[in-house]
Design brief:
about 260 residues; Inositol_monophosphatase_CS; globular; Fructose-1,6-Bisphosphatase, Chain A, domain 1; metal-binding; alpha+beta; D-Maltodextrin-Binding Protein, domain 2; five-stranded mixed sheet; Inositol_monophosphatase-like
Length: about 260
């Protein structure tokens, strides 16, 4: 069985290969439409990137499972020892709007844990990487999360996460809420200490957070579901019950304050 570093090298190669594909559609008014069941928008660029990633990754690792936002569900992935977990373009709304904050999110799970991860933002020339036995890197340089506590922390989340119902006694902590379009990028921004935490009180899709969660953990942050439990990937539903990603001190503070 290949080491996590070998899978990381493959993911990195694949991410850099598809970056130009995405950029060829970016700001070029790609065809876009809404998915069924209010699942959000998708564009011809998402599908082109997905096809290229599938060809590259499964061509190199045909025994691996495949879980992607833009592919039909395939239950055989649950029996594979390792599985790719892919979001071809995370932040599709930003992509459609011509904003630079979209990412390719690529991960490999072994069993239920992530062992290799890449989040690549081609319009910004940013590549976050990590594998299970090494450090988290941004463009080859080590990154670390902040040591902030909850007072005044900059937390990447959506507005409804600050509703009093999600916090003990209805007391919302005095953090500053901010937002970025790509969920994978949010986790990486926490990993590099530019923001202090990323929070979701709603279920999140595995492909949105698989890569970013490992990058955050290898940087020194703690990444759990909203209840403080370890994240388990390549599950039948492909969903995680919310998330709290932050440095150890802030993660503890947030978990104490949450319902």
């Amino acid at each position: 069985m290949r080491g996590p570093d070998e899978d990381l090298a493959l993911l990195t190669e694949a991410a850099r290969k598809v970056g130009p594909i995405a950029l060829s559609f970016w700001k070029a008014e790609p065809e876009a439409w809404e998915k069924p069941d209010d699942a959000g928008p998708v564009t011809e660029a998402d599908l082109a990137v997905n096809d290229a990633l599938h060809s590259t990754l499964m061509g190199a690792r045909p025994s691996y499972g495949w879980l992607s936002e833009e592919s039909e569900a395939d239950a055989s992935r649950l029996d594979a020892r390792r599985c790719f977990i892919i979001d071809p373009i995370d932040g599709t709304r930003a992509f459609i709007a011509g904003q630079a904050g979209f990412a390719h999110s690529l991960a490999v799970a072994e069993g239920h844990r992530i062992i290799a991860a890449v989040v690549h933002l081609p319009a910004m020339d940013l590549t976050f990487t990590a594998h299970a036995d090494g450090p988290a890197l941004l463009n080859g340089q080590p990154i670390r999360p902040s040591g902030a506590g909850i007072g005044g922390a900059r937390v990447l989340t959506y507005k409804s996460a600050t509703d009093p119902e999600h916090w003990k006694g209805g007391r919302v902590p005095p953090f500053r809420r901010e937002f970025r379009p790509s969920l994978a990028w949010r986790l990486c921004l926490v990993a590099e200490g530019r923001f202090d935490a990323a929070l979701s009180v709603r279920h999140v899709w595995e492909w949105d957070i698989a890569a970013g969660s490992l990058i955050a953990e290898r940087a020194g942050a703690i990444a759990t579901d909203r209840h403080g439990q370890p994240m388990r990937f390549n599950s039948p539903r492909a969903m995680i019950d919310g998330m709290v990603v932050a440095g150890p001190r802030l993660h503890r503070d947030m978990r104490v304050a949450m319902t």
